[in-house]
């Protein structure tokens, strides 16, 4: 009877995608923990396919945008270079915001879904600027000394809109795709860890192949055959990227957002600024943070703060009201030791930047 119930529960888990949502760090078979069914390599074609087609569609086009702006939109080289510098700069900064939203609110699955659709819209609009005559300036011949007309405000607005969608797409895909693929393997087992290592190898192999193809064939088509065809092919490839991603929806393990390290760093910096004029009375008092003496329950919250869960336990202990109020105040204003160590660990990386 029990085996039949287990089989029915497994079938229900496969039918309901929400059953695959799991907190990071959970493992199969534990008590009081939801069972997570890691599909591993069954989900990899969709994850790797999403990334491969996305790179095929965007890398070559991004490398050839300067030619597109100067020949089709008749921009001066200086203006086109400045515009592309802004585009590349925001594309490289957007993943910071995308990672924060993914870790804090959306989760990797919904961030990737939204970003893939945004990249598809960006490539589609960019293709329209080449395919529709009213969305780009009239062609001219510089060789005969003919003056080329500038792009109209409407034409530039449509062009900037396509860039905006591409930036949003890059901001969501870049920080999440690799981590989302690793989420599909169980890190608690040897086979899962081997699967993660193998996934990294295949990920970078397909990334390199996609970059080579995109930066050769796509650029050749754009420069020598037709910009409409050269931009239309990447748009179709982005459509395949979205299709691959959404086809694997029922197979994915979706890790719930647990908070961004940026929030912890901000808490440490805020607390340090607020306490910048605080005078330290006795250095020996701070040794209790690491080696606390045996104390009563009433002082446990003011001597050692290891995690927020410790502060939550104060509510269930027999403590006085002032001590409980102090716990609540410290919980909302002071960073925990782990967050301070996290900031210290990130300083070398920031120094290199």
UniProtKB/TrEMBL annotation:
Pfam families: PTR2 (PF00854)
InterPro entries reported for this sequence: MFS_trans_sf, POT_fam
Membrane topology of this protein: Multi-pass membrane protein
GO CC terms, sorted: membrane
Membrane-spanning residues: 107-128, 202-221, 227-247
Localisation: Membrane
GO MF terms, alphabetically ordered: transmembrane transporter activity
Keywords from the named record: Membrane, Transmembrane, Transmembrane helix
Keyword field contains Membrane: yes
Principal location class: membrane
Source domain of life: Eukaryota
The keyword Membrane belongs to this UniProt entry's keyword annotation: yes
Annotated family: Belongs to the major facilitator superfamily. Proton-dependent oligopeptide transporter (POT/PTR) (TC 2.A.17) family.
Name the record gives this protein: Putative peptide/nitrate transporter
Taxonomic path: Eukaryota, Viridiplantae, Streptophyta, Embryophyta, Tracheophyta
């Amino acid at each position: 009877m029990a085996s039949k119930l287990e089989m029915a529960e497994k079938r229900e888990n496969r039918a309901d995608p929400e059953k695959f949502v799991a907190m990071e760090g959970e493992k199969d078979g534990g008590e009081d923990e939801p069972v997570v069914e890691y599909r591993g390599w069954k989900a990899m074609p969709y994850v790797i396919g999403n990334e491969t087609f996305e790179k095929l569609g965007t890398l070559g086009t991004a490398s050839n945008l300067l030619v597109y702006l100067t020949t089709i939109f008749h921009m001066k080289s200086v203006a086109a270079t400045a515009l592309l510098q802004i585009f590349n700069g925001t594309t490289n900064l957007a993943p910071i915001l995308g990672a924060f939203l993914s870790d804090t609110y959306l989760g990797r699955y919904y961030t990737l879904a939204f970003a893939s659709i945004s990249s598809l819209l960006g490539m589609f609009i960019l293709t329209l600027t080449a395919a529709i005559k009213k969305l780009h300036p009239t062609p001219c011949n510089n060789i005969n000394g003919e003056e080329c007309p500038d792009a109209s405000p409407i034409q530039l607005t449509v062009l900037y809109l396509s860039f905006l969608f591409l930036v949003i797409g890059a901001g969501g895909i870049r920080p999440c795709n690799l981590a989302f693929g690793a989420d599909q393997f169980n890190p608690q087992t040897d086979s899962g860890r081997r699967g993660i290592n193998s996934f990294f190898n295949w990920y970078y192999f397909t990334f390199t192949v996609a970059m080579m193809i995109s930066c050769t064939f796509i650029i050749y088509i754009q420069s020598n055959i037709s910009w409409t065809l050269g931009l239309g092919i990447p748009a179709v490839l982005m459509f395949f990227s979205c299709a691959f991603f959404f086809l694997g929806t029922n197979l994915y393990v979706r890790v719930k957002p647990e908070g961004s390290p940026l929030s912890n760093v901000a808490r440490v910096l805020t607390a340090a600024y607020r306490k910048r004029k605080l005078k330290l009375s006795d250095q020996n008092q701070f040794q209790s943070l690491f080696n606390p003496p045996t104390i009563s329950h009433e002082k446990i919250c003011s001597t050692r703060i290891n995690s927020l869960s410790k502060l939550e336990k104060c509510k269930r202990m027999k403590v006085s009201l002032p001590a409980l109020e102090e716990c609540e105040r410290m919980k909302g204003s002071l960073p925990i030791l782990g967050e301070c160590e996290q900031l210290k660990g990130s300083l070398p990386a920031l120094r290199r930047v």
